[in-house]
Automatic annotation (TrEMBL):
Native organism: Coemansia erecta
InterPro entries in the cross-refs: ATG101
Keyword NAD in annotation: no
Identification of the protein by name: Autophagy-related protein 101
GO biological process, one term: autophagosome assembly
Pfam families: ATG101 (PF07855)
Keywords: Autophagy
GO MF term list: protein kinase binding
Keyword S-adenosyl-L-methionine tagged: no
Family from the record: Belongs to the ATG101 family.
Length: 193
C-alpha cells in the first residue's frame, strides 16, 4: 500500500492562526472522513473565506483541542510548530507462535502543516496587509487540500468495515523540524525550555 504525505506551510500573524488552521484541518477531515457526513459551511477572516466541515461533535472538539495545543506550542517554541493529520487502516495480523493475533494500524496518508506565527503588526496598513495575506493563504491551502484529496485516491484502502468512519484519524501537534530538542527537554524536565 502506498503511504502518501502531503505538506503545506502557513505563515500567519499569531491571532489569525487558530481560524486558518481550523479551516485547513476541517477541510482535510471533510474530504477524508468516509462516514455518513453532514456538511457544515463555515466563514472565517471577516467572512472572506468559506470552508466546509464535518458536522460531528467529536470531530469539532478534537480539532478545537488540537488548535489550542498548537497555540500553546507556538508560544513556547518561538512561533514555529507542525500539525500532522494521519489516516490509518486497521488490519488483523496473523497469529504468531507467542500469542493471539492483534490488530495492526497502518498509516496510508499524512497531511503535514508547518505553521509559523508572526508578531502583530503595529500600523493599520500593516495589520490590513497581514489580514490580506491570511485570506490568501487560507484560500490557497483550502484549495490545495481539495485538489490533493480529489486527485490522489489510488492509495486509499478499500472500505471493509461498517463503522461510521472506517479509517481512524489522528491529529498531532509538534514543534517544527529542528525544534525537537526543546520538546525532548520539556518531556525530560517539565517546567524547563
Amino acid at each position: 500500500m502506498d503511504h502518501r504525505v502531503i505538506k503545506h506551510s502557513l505563515v500567519l500573524e499569531r491571532s489569525l492562526v487558530p481560524s486558518v488552521v481550523k479551516a485547513v484541518l476541517h477541510t482535510i477531515l471533510f474530504h477524508r472522513y468516509f462516514g455518513n457526513v453532514t456538511p457544515q459551511e463555515n466563514l472565517i477572516l471577516s467572512d472572506q473565506v468559506t470552508y466546509v466541515s464535518v458536522d460531528d461533535g467529536n470531530v469539532v472538539s478534537t480539532v478545537d483541542s488540537k488548535v489550542e495545543e498548537l497555540m500553546q506550542v507556538l508560544q513556547q517554541d518561538g512561533g514555529k510548530s507542525q500539525v500532522t493529520v494521519s489516516f490509518s487502516e486497521t488490519r488483523g495480523r496473523k497469529a504468531s507462535w507467542f500469542g493471539t493475533a492483534t490488530p495492526q494500524s497502518v498509516c496510508w496518508e499524512e497531511w503535514v502543516v508547518d505553521v509559523q506565527a508572526l508578531g502583530r503588526a503595529h500600523g493599520r496598513e500593516e495589520r490590513a496587509a497581514q489580514q490580506r495575506l491570511a485570506v490568501d493563504q487560507a484560500k490557497h491551502a483550502i484549495f490545495q487540500v481539495i485538489c490533493q484529496a480529489d486527485a490522489h485516491k489510488d492509495h486509499i484502502p478499500l472500505i471493509a468495515s461498517s463503522q461510521e468512519n472506517p479509517f481512524p484519524y489522528h491529529i498531532a501537534v509538534a514543534p517544527a523540524a529542528g525544534l525537537w530538542s526543546s520538546m525532548i527537554k520539556r518531556a525530560i524536565l517539565p517546567g524547563m525550555a
